[in-house]
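[job 0412] stage=fold_complex status=start
inputs:
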Amino acid sequence: MISPLVSPVLFHVGPIPISEPVVITWGILAALTAGSLALRRSLKLVPSSIQAACELVVETVDSQIRDTMRVDPAPYRAFIGTLFVFIFVANWSSLVPGVTPPTARLETDAALALLVFLAVIWFGVKAGGVKGYLATFATPSPLMIPLNFVESLTRTFSLLVRLFGNVMSGVFVIGLILSLAGLVAPIPLMALDLLTGAVQAYIFAVLAMVFIAGAVAEAAPESQSNERTPP
Amino acid sequence: MNWIAAVSIFSAAMAVSFGAIGPGLGEGRAVAAALDAIARQPEAANTISRTLFVGLAMIETMAIYCLVIALLLLFANPLLK
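[job 0412] stage=fold_complex status=done
writing structure:
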């Protein structure tokens, strides 16, 4: 049986092996970028149906950021929105026959979790300066420094394992049922897999918001009360 | 097959089977509480079900961790190399 922990290498560019999830990720990135550019060219005041759907997505992301972080969504919209849209499309790319979602591989999820880890540092430093951000590690008392440090690493790791485990187990179970029962049997499981994929994309984005909001609120406690929007 | 492989397979099955008990009970309790809340306040069903889905995915993650441990034991066992 093929191990779910290794990615098959398709070809080499010089000494660098290019694996299957990398190629699929390139495809998703190209499709998303081309779609966004094509849509931007045809923006109108009275929206077409595709433009209306995209505006709905942006407004939903905005309202989620406002609900979760209690701040103006503008600085975070690009990062959180891109994260959500990419993971969502990647999870649902299993609808295309022959495509394994890149999020079912350890490397893609590790890259996404690393992005969130770096974004927490970036937004924390931007809100309170390097000193203010480093001071958040000693917030209740300096005794908590090692604990807070370990927490920021383990929550990144659990973000990675959560997304990987959920998407990979869906793919794995479908493969098992397909080899045991035949062609039509895994269809309900595939529907369940789509639901799981959407929920996991949402959860990944919400957890990224929560981590960033925690770092920002602790790094700059005095400016937080001004930015707080009324509910 | 040496005894390390046998023990690995056995403990992989143990990890998944026992690791599924806790999240199963937890998810049952969460869904029961959410249904109770929706029955009391049907107008808040949207918020409740959204929070329920996030909570369920969080609880489910515990079982997923056990699955990952089991797969590590089966496919990436350092003792078998």
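[job 0412] summary: The radius of gyration of chain A is 20 Å.
[job 0412] exit 0
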